[in-house]
Amino acid sequence: MEKMKKKEFNICKRILGLMLAAGTLVFSGSTVRAAVMPYDTYCYDWWAEDVLQPHAYLYAESFAGSRLGTELKTPQDLFFKDGLLYIADTGNNRILVITEAGEFVEEITEGLSGPQGVFVTEENHVYVADSGNGRIVEFDEDRKPVREVGRPETDLMDASQNYMPVKVVVDGSGRIYVIAYGINMGLVEFNEAGEFQGFMGATQVTVSPFEYIWKNYFSTDAQKQRMETIIPTEYSNIFVDQSNFVYATISNLSDEDHLNGADSIRRLNPTGTDVLRRLGNYSIIGDLYSASDEADWSSFTDVAATEYGCYFILDNAGGKVFCYDYDGNSLFIFGGMGSRSGLARNPSSLAVNEDQSRLYILDAQLGSVLVFDITEYGSNLLGAMKAHFKGNTEESDRLWREGLRQNANSEVAYIGMGKSSMREGDYKQAMKYFQLGNSRKYYTRAFEFYRKEQMQTKFPKYMGAAVVLAVIGLLAVTGRKIKRWVGEVKCRDI
Asked: What pTM does this model have?
């Protein structure tokens, strides 16, 4: 009976969500496009239930074939800078450069063999993870090769181990970070001169107490040999933000890792420490499932971050894009797998333009770039985040209220308004918003500030009143004692 009630509740919730999304899109003028979208947009609430919401991004078009001037063959990486898209066209041994409208600009082919990663610096130098040649190649602004960074010289790697770099980024100080196939010691780090510095951000191995005790004290030598070796997981992709922090995704987590809430993404500072904020109500693993659900876990294959802390993660297993805010709260989820326009078959990389008005997904199987345009609802969410980051409380509050008008069930909007109220010093109002947003952590923080404020403003008054009452009580008691003593003296005189 309870399961039936829960099922009926979820059905009603989905219907209401669809009605809300449709109504919102009527106001935004995107009804026709939204009606043909082959995917839903949703997020997870406090109870880890998926809740439909208005579309944040709508599929617009695809770049492929003759439009690009040539066919893409198993492309593996995508990078956006200054209105240009750089594609690691792996099967064609080149880096293809196109405009954000999908028009061919140029290609880089000199000496490349199966490149799987591309990065462009502020000086328009192009770094390529030349996987087939086991090196990183740097091209200058004229697309001329200026240097190559080869195999790291270290005793930590076996001489017989093949070195195959697959992804590369360069931070503002010139440090080069590389993901290499088969290396699970973390990111390979080189300094500005291309000299190997070590491994950075190695993932931690977790072993259950039962597994540790069984393997070390009860299993035989033969059983130990048959046991699977526990090794750290490898990173699948990397992105460097404007603060020189490296976002790194992990795609090969086990079912047990997902059930235990192991996050599939990290934000590494220059020392390799994970500083990703996790103040949301659940782990950052993509779609939320339980052990009884027959579904594939999300497999993060790429990430792109904004200047104000929001980040987009691409899921290779479900073809979805997950967007999180700076604290790790889910903003929205959209996309899917299939053969219809707007769906992916084998998404390998994603990128967003400077103002996040367009999002691009590279599909290795389709050999195309899927293009998505932001909606008014998505613009309100991200705009509010950006305004809050820049300290424009009035603008962020206005955008949050507009977002709530479009989606009254948006917990993240209530949390955003609570942050605005807390920044303005209205802690009592902030507590109300955080309660509506089901954010215990921020509610607790606002309550602490509110309690401190009350102690500072009202404690002196209450303390003064208490002192006055204590003095009055003491005088009354003393007066009674004096009166009693005087009466006793008079009695003795008589």
From this structure: 0.81
